Amino acid sequence: MSKRVQESQCSWQHARRSRRDALQAGAIGILGLGMNHLAGLRQATAAEGRQPSGKARSCIFIFLSGGLSQHDSFDMKPNAPDNIRGEFQPRATKTPGLQICEHLPKLAERSQMWSLCRSLTHGSNEHSAAHHIMLTGHSELPAGFSPNNPSRSDRASIAAVTGYAMRAKQQNNLPTAVVLPERLVHNSGRVIPGQHSGPMGPQHDPWMIEASPFHNTSYGAFPEYAFDHQDRGKPDERLFQAPQLSLPDGLGMQAINGRLALLESLNRQREDLASYAQVENFDRLRQGAVSLLTESSVHQALNVTNADEKHLDRYGRNSFGWSLLMARRLVGAGVSLVQVNLGNDETWDTHGNAFPHLKNNLFPPTDQAVSALLDDLHSTGELDETLIVMAGEFGRTPQITLLEKHYKLPGRDHWGAVQSVLFAGGGIRGGNVVGKSDARGAYPDEQPVKPENFAATIYDALGVPATAAWHDAQNRPHHIYHGEPIAGLS
Fold first, then answer.
1. What is the pTM of this model?
2. pLDDT attached to residue 36
3. Theoretical Cys-Cys bridge with 488: which of 284, 405, 434, 464, CB 3.0 to 4.6 Å?
């Protein structure tokens, strides 16, 4: 066994605790937080070799709920028949031979920063099942799966698994995984499955930052680019507002520091932290809550609508721009994974009116905000250590259809058989295309890639060891990897 493999395996065992750790544990216990809620302990374990083996320190997972049409974005078929080709024209990128949609000009100018996989495939054409498949990285649905009723028997989301895997590597007390700016909720009010930690337990659910209020008929990057798939005329007066964080009355930082100073002078401390393993997950949410309340960098990250004019102009003064600016600031503050839902549930579900809605409402804010994110990270040198992925739950059908009962203009239906996924940063080789769809954009023609490979690519980039596992309440191990990382991206 290689030394590197040995170190990786050791990094997933509980470290020995010193008397100083015991002192800190006692102090935090008085605050009602739990022994595991210690920046000191995390720094100690980091010093013992808990460093990511991958190239990325963090990941921004951009999710396009509804399903982006591959034909009209990153895998155009200009030589296909009219009923497949669509209305848009391809445009050249900075990468010789690589073309994408004419309405993504900023991304075309930055093709050296990103790569495509054009052959991701799975077997579901149903929204809720496909959400679960792509958000968890599992092609097969769990026994008893219900599209209308998320349950703890559902599989754990990629965000939750990443949060679990990175918690020992993170050198701060911030949540390891965050989802923003809203939970994905169907227009009927039911929550879409695949967004929580499933059988891992609620203590491992990713943090949900609710900055975008629910609206059941308006979609897209409000207020500038809000639209309704069926043009029903219901007004959208939502405001994008990140949560305002403040300490409860009577408990300011001076009080907290005073209590810690008093506890540091105690002579008797806990001598045995053998129960650490059993309580490690206890009150994890309180730990994150205190960090969110006390970290100035977090307050700055969430206060995006009041960012300086230059940043707002670059990212866009809309929910897409604000969300990606918030994500960029959160990974800068030390959060390991931020999932950004670009639009509420089924925003990209272009069954009808597809071409005007993509051209006028969806592509402009996406092109602007994702390009600004790439520029921002590149200018500071952080793109090399920040993996960016962008995917939906599926692609769209090759054939253009018209559902006259609901739409005035044509679109495309659900299609799990193939979609295009964008990757950037975190060791990804820019200006690169992996996989190929057939001439109709219907099925993979070369190098089919599964959701398991998609998830493994994220875990691998973040340095999660191939042997890593999470443990359930009965301490049974569950492997994190269920496929190999996508070959050819790096």
1. 0.83
2. 39
3. 434
